[in-house]
């Protein structure tokens, strides 16, 4: 048998559960209990020390390397792959250090009249002796 008191109690229990759920989700989304704190570096990774995502092929061939604008930060390793316009995907290749290997540079030389998308994945930076994995980059070589 239901009484006025039991209905009030049910409503208060539902309200309490709803409030508890709201508090839980707001704390979880607020990074209060995050396991790792992400450090945001004000750096930029560049291909051939060029300030754009679209890099002329002759500049890439002259300086085939990745650089970063942040001091005390070095490129430790990365994965590189290529996809020419209307072409076949080539890669990925694991690279140690900032320089693009000669095999990949020779591959790029074949595309003087076409654009090539250059994918940089698994980019590891050495920042003050600590390894930092950062987001992938996409560059495009233009003829």
Alpha plus pi helix count: 3
Uncertain stretches of 5 or more adjacent residues: 31-39
Shape call: elongated
- Which structural class should the secondary elements be placed in? alpha+beta
The helix content, as a percent range, equals 25-40%
* Cα separation of the termini: 83 Å
Q: How many domains?
A: 2
Spell out the helices and strands N to C: HEEHEEEHEEE
How much of the sequence lies in strands comes to: 35-45%
Structure summary, number of beta strands? 8
Summarize the biggest pleated sheet: 6 strands, mixed
What is the C-alpha radius of gyration, as a whole number of Å? 26 Å
Mean pLDDT: 81
Task: Give the tags.
single chain, 143 residues, alpha+beta, 2 domains, 6-stranded mixed beta sheet, two-stranded antiparallel sheet, 8 strands
Topology:
Elements: H1 4-29, E1 45-47, E2 54-56, H2 57-62, E3 66-68, E4 73-84, E5 90-96, H3 102-109, E6 116-127, E7 130-134, E8 137-142
Parallel strand pairs: 2-8
Antiparallel strand pairs: 1-3, 4-5, 4-6, 6-7, 6-8
Explain the overall architecture:
With 143 residues, the protein is an alpha+beta fold. It folds into 2 domains: 1-35; 45-142, no CATH class. 28% of the residues lie in helices and 36% in strands. It has helices spanning 4-29, 57-62, 102-109; strands at residues 45-47, 54-56, 66-68, 73-84, 90-96, 116-127, 130-134, 137-142. The strands form 2 sheets. Strands 2, 4, 5, 6, 7 and 8 form a 6-stranded mixed beta sheet that branches. Strands 1-3 form a two-stranded antiparallel ribbon. Strand 6 and strand 7 form a beta hairpin. The longest helix is centred in the N-terminal third of the chain and has 26 residues, at 4-29. It is elongated.
